[in-house]
């Protein structure tokens, strides 16, 4: 959900944007990154840093079939983000709302020590009430429950919904309150929103991706509709999104991102709990956790741009809200120009019409460069995923737009490996089967009124 709020929320957000200075994205140069990078990337496991030979062997094993230079990209990415690779993890892809909710609720039900939850949307609907009731039950059982919810993302949610959770003992923080009277000394930063979706249970299992707490995810996705052999020709196929379940040492990095968000809100101290238990290797997945914020280091943006610039074979991007800046547009068209298969799955149905129009304003230069664009049918697309050369994958909350990169608090997980990349590409191919390709010849025949709408929306792309 780009706006993920009703008209009032959008008006408030735009009002804050108009009075804010236009922040700029950094220049991301592949040559500059190579000139300043170290000789070897750093990898960590449950016991600390791996020695250089261990890191090199690890990367070769995870990228064994790749055309991408594993060690080189890992070094560049670490130099650009400051975040190390983390080995020894187990990762599960979650492709639709019902599966994601079921896995999160199961983990919460099994919690023994702490639950930390950070979200943009927390609706007061059937799904939201069930989720809140489960959190309150765990709080009554003695589990420490902390919740951060975005005050714009929940602007239409009645406050008694959250007060009920507070009265049940849950510790809640409204992120960057719309009402300046509710601030606690960190300044009125209305345009900076917490767009992360992050759940950490007992410091040992974490969930992140694009799924919010809302009934919009109650229906199945096209994936499940296809498996169940139901006709995929109506809204019953639900919203299309992607989430991750992570277990292993990388959970500590995700927990730290939550703790930082909590502290930056000048909230009360987190209640005592074992937030950082001793970690053990639970799988063979190598991850990099990137948590970004306004006036930060643009880690997700830098990582994405460097990887696109280094791509040798394929770039498969699924994005709900695609309004690229000049560098991203240039990187994608340049990749297509050097023979990389660049394919985008974008929405044909959107909950944010003006963003959808702004996205289409970039179709012409992409199509002319040889980028293939597909629009997902029937379902509202909300996933934010990229897989490059079948081995570098990212899943998270970040859209390809200036708002995500400049103004939002976002979190993405990068997963390294052929097996996971193959699973991501399989999901991408499934999306292609549920999409219609936009060809250059057909696009050039679109009505004049559509062109005008795209042009007008494009003028507002910074604020969307």
Q: Mind explaining what this structure looks like?
A:
The chain is an alpha/beta fold and 464 residues long. The chain has helices at residues 7-19, 30-36, 52-62, 70-81, 97-109, 126-140, 159-167, 222-227, 250-264, 299-310, 326-337, 353-360, 363-368, 402-407, 418-433, 440-443, 448-458, and strands at 43-45, 48-49, 85-94, 114-119, 144-150, 171-175, 193-194, 198-201, 205-209, 243-247, 285-292, 314-319, 322-323, 341-347, 372-376, 384-388, 392-396, 400-401, 408-416, 435-438. It has an 18-stranded mixed beta sheet that branches. Helix 4 runs antiparallel to helix 10. The protein is globular and about 60 Å long. The chain starts with 6 loop residues before the first helix and ends in a 6-residue tail after the last helix.
Tags for this model:
464 residues, globular, 2 domains, single chain, disordered N terminus, alpha/beta, 18-stranded mixed β-sheet, Endonuclease, Chain A, two-stranded parallel ribbon
